[in-house]
Amino acid sequence: MKKTGFWKYFITTFKEAKYLLLKYLGAAVLMSIISILSNLLQVRELTYLNAVLAINCFSGLISFGIAEAIGILVNQSISSQYRVKKYVRIGSELNIIFMFLFTVFLVACPRFIMEGVTGFIPQDYTFYYLMCVDFFLCGIKEYLLEILKQLQIYRLQFFSDCLAYILVVLGFVILYFSGIYYLNYIAAVYILAVALTIVVALLALYKNKTIKINLLRFQSLKLTSSQWKLILVNLATEFVWQVGYFATSVLLLRMSDAMLNTYSYLESVLDLFNGFYYAFVNITCIKISRCLGRNQFDKALFHAKKSIWASVVIWAMFAASSMILIYPIALGVNKAYFSLMFTVLPCYVAMTFFRFVTWNFSSYMLRLGGKTTVHLVIEICETLSYVIFCFVARFLPDNIYLSYFIIALPDIVSLPFEILIYKRKRWIANINEDPNLLKNKVRCFIFDFDDTLYYGVEIDNWSDLALNFFNEHFSYKTEAERKAILKKYGCGRKGEECYRHIKQILLDYEGSIESWTNFRRGLEVQPEAKAGKGVLMKELKKCENLGALYIVSNSSMEEIEERAQMYGIDLSIFKQIYYSDAGEKDKGQFYEKIMLAENLSPEQILVVGDRFKTDLLPAKERDMNICKVQDGFTFEELVG
């Protein structure tokens, strides 16, 4: 793994995340404006609005849990467009199903939700029903935005998010100038904003140059048990985390109003730092996930180590900035809490250290490494501790230091366990157990030889060269005689057809193809061949670890041995070589022989070649896996 200076790595990562950073900054500013404008509503209407918006937060919770799990599958399959499309579509449909079920529950139980859960009794439920529509759409939107992040489509997401927030701001501004605080109008604005974001996200996926994904085309929900476990455990983790967050608020509320108000204020004012850190986490998670999916464990460890130090650096920046801003922060709080803020802020900053570092370990080493159950158990333990503290809080002394220590205690306790898992490196070992992955199915590799197992030829126009060779080699014949020969073999004057029949022509007229072999040898460029030596054998050795290797070629054995020596190919690693001395034969017959000899099913065989018609089509017709290569290959490209 090439070493990179920490600061260079740090700056490069944030450059990649620039649109995410802009998004969080824009969202923070616009959300602050929305909060100010919404406070112009009457008290009862504002309570109604906040109660319903709190319920709508659960839509993002559901979608985020699904998207995080799908994101892992996507980034470990990023080299395969088919699998990326499959997972994104499956995640989309799974998200729609969950969101539909929860929306139906909300619509069916309005009184239970509003009166039983929020304790608010509205006079009219029209606004509530409209916001149920927003709830459903918000869940769809959140999934799409998370997937755009996983596919690293940040720019369009930034603009669509800002445009959606601006629409909501304009809605409140119109209400302010009209003087009529009509909540149903606000619901319509929210629905319009989220619908716009969904349309932009769908277009971004469909118009993406690398991987075009049409989510309007459905994909059957076919997942393995391990993939279902990944998704469901992520969902459960998000729900448990939300319960823990709620328990923290209750804990503070039971201790004192001052604690709750100052904590909540700091959470809002300093939330931009959380966005700043999350932008870094998102980029690094993608890097680590892709490394794990490709068996590049050294690179995964490299990114993980850099990320740990980056977490500390970002926290230090956060601590310094918040301490510098202590006076403007404190002045923004009720005067009764002014002196209290000088004690609360250092405690809050110290608590955030454990939050950042444990977030780092749980995001990378547990969730990405497939240790989702461990992650869930740790989250459950943390949440249970908060719930217990809620019940005993009234018996504890009302002390700021004690309060923040209790809030940070679950992270302080879980951190050593996470570090232990990281140190043992077991978090990188169980990613590739999915039976659906090709590398877990394939037990036999069949390679074409020419232009597949060596790539030292620089000349692409063999067809025209073959015709020139034919005309020069048979120059003692008249032009009419040469035309007659070409016509006899069905070549006409096209170089491509002449190239395919040149060996048979030479065998029939001269009894040897030595002249053609010498001609080709003279055109092959040696430097590229030397560059490929060693590299190819290293990749073939990786293939050999999975199963038997075969060669099926239309070249003669003499040509195969000659080029193998020229390009440094060790033929001994191949179990058998099937070859043809002249002309073309159906390679499918050889593929069937190998399948019977190895006693394998078609899905356990991978055929690798540079020509679709002659190398890959016979395999495809027999339901075997195929991979088209050009100018060399890597093991990851073959099994990806």
So how many helices? 26
Number of E-state strands: 5
What is the count of distinct domains? 4
Radius of gyration: 32 Å
Hey, roughly how much beta strand do the residues contain?
under 5%
Helix residue percentage: over 70%
Shape: elongated
- End-to-end CA span: 21 Å
Question: Structural class of the helices, strands and pairings?
Answer: mainly alpha
Described by strand count, sense and barrel closure, the largest sheet is: 5 strands, parallel
Low-confidence runs of at least 5 consecutive residues: 525-533
Average of the residue pLDDT scores: 78
Strand order of the largest sheet: 3-2-1-4-5
Can you describe what's shown?
This protein has 640 residues and is mostly helical. It has helices spanning 6-16, 18-38, 43-75, 81-108, 110-118, 126-150, 155-178, 183-207, 225-255, 257-269, 271-293, 297-324, 326-331, 338-368, 372-392, 400-424, 462-473, 479-488, 495-510, 514-523, 526-532, 535-544, 557-566, 587-598, 612-621, 635-639, and strands at 444-447, 548-552, 576-578, 605-609, 625-628. It has four domains: 1-222; 255-431, no CATH class; 439-456 and 527-639, Rossmann fold (3-Layer(aba) Sandwich); 462-523, no CATH class.
Please tag this protein with its features.
single chain, 640 residues, mainly alpha, Rossmann fold, 5-stranded parallel beta sheet, 26 helices
